[in-house]
Amino acid sequence: MKIAIRTLLLATAAVPSALSAQTASDTSSDKKANGDETIIVTGTRSAEPLPADRIGGSITVLDETALKRRQVRYISDVLRDVPGIAVGRVPGQTQIRIRGAEANHTLVLIDGIEVSDPFVGEFDFGGLIADNAARVEVLRGQQSAIYGSDAIGGVIHYITPTGREAPGISARIDGGSFATVNTAVRLAGVEGTIDYALSATLNSTDGTPGARVGTRDLANDTGALSLKANWRPSETFRLTGVVRYGRTEAEFNNSDNDFASPTFGFQIDTPDNEVENEAIYGLLRGELDLLDGDWTHRLTGQIVDTTRDGFSAEVRSYGSEGQRLKGSYETTMRFDGAGVQHRLTGAVDVERERFRNTDPSGFLFSGQRQINNVGFVAQYDALIGDNASFGASIRRDDNDRFADTTTYRLHGSYRFDTGTRLRAAAGSGVKNPGFYELFGLFDGRFIGNPDLEPERSEGWEVGVEQELAQGAATFGLTYFESDLEQEIFTLYSTVATPANRDTISTQSGVEAFAQTRFGDAWTLNATYTYLRARENGGREIRRPAHTASFAVDWRAPADKGGVSLVARYNGESDDDAFIDPSFIPVRVQLDDYVLVNLNADVKVSGRIDLFGRVENLADADYEDVFSFETPGRSFYVGARARF
Q1: Which of 9, 180, 512, 572 is within CB 3.0–4.6 Å of 205 for a Cys-Cys bond?
Q2: Quick one: pLDDT at residue 120?
Q3: What is this structure's pTM?
Q4: Strand, coil or helix: 10
Q5: Which of 475, 381, 382, 383 is nearest to 420 (CA)?
Q6: What is the number of alpha carbons within 13 Å of residue 381 lying toward its C-beta?
Q7: Per-residue pLDDT averaged across 473-484, rounded?
Q8: What value does the mean pLDDT take over residues 512-526?
């Protein structure tokens, strides 16, 4: 519970200054003045974001209402409601795969900061607890022409509102099964030309057994503290700062390494095993508008500093450090003519990633290594009349370790007066090898490969959407294909080591969604994905061919309360099990499952709500990863308040 004490003390210390600020009226930046059109900030380097219906690629927005009514605590849970996403959750590393790509092929942003661990090469979604009033944008398909390395499968952007967008004080707390306590506090407001938002989240649980054949409950304490502030001394200049601190303490098990044991290769109870992850994220951005706002300039600096330490029998057994320093300059020129809004953007990214293995044994190289990269981006967007749009991006990356690379992105959209929208997108992506893949060494059975080459991907998609009843119902269908060259895989012999494949891995599939409203009371949302992912002629592991979700929400008159039911289906999938003493993996099948959550809330007063939920209502017994047990049915009750 050390994380609980730290987080709550930090939040409490900030209360006095927050209470003294003057709050502003609600001016959500996600809505246009003439309607409720959703604005997307992800997938563009322009300072002016695009309307969702002008983007040719596939994008899903999970807004504050969805997170609140579905009582989302772990963001990874609600991502199961997004087409094309598969979730794999184990202690210490929750992975997200988009359209069959690897987990480290997803670029993750939090309030504009790239948050992947530079050492591991990906972000642990198990450490992302939902803040009050947050939203999530998920952009699928290759986005390296915008963001560079990592964005092969897509981009997930977790966004918290500013103090001007959502002023006031809000708090929630709930608890229940497995001695779980979850809380979130947000203090936000406006003081003259400055607005701010301070938020804290905490999830603490004694946990459940993590091994199929074990009884040891795996405890987990995860917390975060974030400050987001803006200073706007004039109409033409803005300064934004974001600071975020996150920490996770999680118990975990080892696999059975006794050759003579009948559970060899299975997870088994391993007392006193724990991992501690700590990260600090920061961003500072200055924005200047010239020529009556038609020419914008943005200068941004950001930092990520991560530390990971593992303990066995309360003795530190392994560790790593990673740091990312990034500076960016972006400029956008807007000019209109003949019914077309033109936006021409240029950007330069300068990035340095540093890595260090902090192995306490002294047998591994613990010196610091680094990789430098400079990226140049050119982007053009055209909004043609009220119905059509087109965009193109190209990026050139100059890397001091890997060969220079060029990536591109094209997209277009057209909406007919009948409510039908046709869209298409194509692009390429690149993923540079991570430090662990290049230089890792583990237990004498894994050694990195410094000769690895970047993975390269190219893909396309086409989609159609149809609105009915003046937007009360929307249906959509998308087909996509991607090819991945030089995929990094693990070659098993006497020692396991990564290598690049000389065959092409392929991913293709169909995504469908439907959302409907029936008056003010009922809302239905449904998604379905069919995925065919092949590597070296075989099926890729942990990629179910079929995934789906269904959510139905009912609200009482005057929004006095409501009930929501969410069902999430995960089809059967393959996994690799290391149950042979040769350590060559054995292909096994993971059964399909359905997770059902029931949520309810009631408004006690204008400021206080009571709520409760049942997770895994049917008590499904399932595994996302071979022999890693998952929680059964659980119950929670809580309250939230707004001031």
Answers
A1: 180
A2: 86
A3: 0.93
A4: helix
A5: 475
A6: 21
A7: 97
A8: 96
